[in-house]
Amino acid sequence: MRGRTALVTGASRGIGKAISSKFAELGANVLTPTRNELDLNVDASVDNYISSLDEPVDILVNNAGINPLVEGVKLTDEDLYETVKINLTSPTRLIRGIAPRMVDRQYGRIVNISSIWGSVSKPKRLAYTISKTGLNGMTRAFAVELSQHNVLVNAVAPGFVNTELTRKNLSESEIEQITKGIPLRRLAEPEEIAEVVAFLCSEKNTFTTGQVLLVDGGFSCQ
Questions:
Q1: Residue 175 lies in a domain
Q2: Annotated catalytic, 81?
Q3: Is the pLDDT of residue 165 over 90?
Q4: pLDDT tens digits, residue range 37-66?
């Protein structure tokens, strides 16, 4: 990735931080905007950030997202709209604003961080599943449109990952129970997700596009 410029959203912790660290290790110039610089819940903030870029972006990773845990019948319009805005609409706006310069240079790599909950679901995941299922469809649609310009678009769908947020939301006993349902019998480490993203975003990836790669230790196979 030496000489390439990569933009990674939500890079302050967890998977995003692991991705940005891996990209830097591979020689990329990594842009990791804070929420003050790029607020995905505000259209004008997204548009202003795109306009402020003074260098072309070769690699875009849409990683930032939210996951309100609310039963479907209790989900408010506000929660639904905010989740879709941050997880789907703003990533679409970022691609729409950044991809034209990739097309001009006939090179680009885009990865959207999806989730297993875009393929399967569970209680209290209605808004999240809607947004990630949409993200998977958006990935395929952009891949079809941009592939002729050597701009490859994919999604990576992690399962349960050993992040600070996971440890915050789940007790040790809950995590232990979850791992029993994963064929590999453990959570993924953020660095393992980053390795998959790094391949898809590298020049080694020359023919994979429009795919949603589940990185879940076999969880969705059952």
A1: no
A2: no
A3: no
A4: 999 999 999 999 999 999 999 999 999 999
| Coil vs helix vs strand at 194 | helix
Token representation of residue 156: 């990576």
Please state the separation of Cα 35 from the chain's center in Å.
Answer: 16
Q: Which amino acid is present at 128?
A: Y
- Over 90: is that where the pLDDT of 88 sits? yes
Q: Residue 207 is encoded by which pair of tokens?
A: 């023919």
pLDDT of residue 170: 82
Whichever domain contains 84, its CATH number is 3.40.50.720
Owning domain of residue 34:
5-161+190-215
| Residue 81 to residue 56: CA distance in whole angstroms | 30
Average pLDDT over residues 201-213: 97
Report if residue 59 sits inside a domain.
yes
Of 49, 81, 107, 128, catalytic: 128
Distance CA 112, CA 84 (A): 14
Please report whether residue 176 resides in a domain.
no
According to the model, what pLDDT value does residue 167 have? Answer: 85
**The dihedral sign for the CA sequence 189, 195, 196, 201:** positive
Number of domains in the chain: 1
**131 part of a folded domain:** yes
Q: How far apart are CA 10 and CA 179, in angstroms?
A: 26
Pairing mode, strands 5-8 and 59-62 = parallel
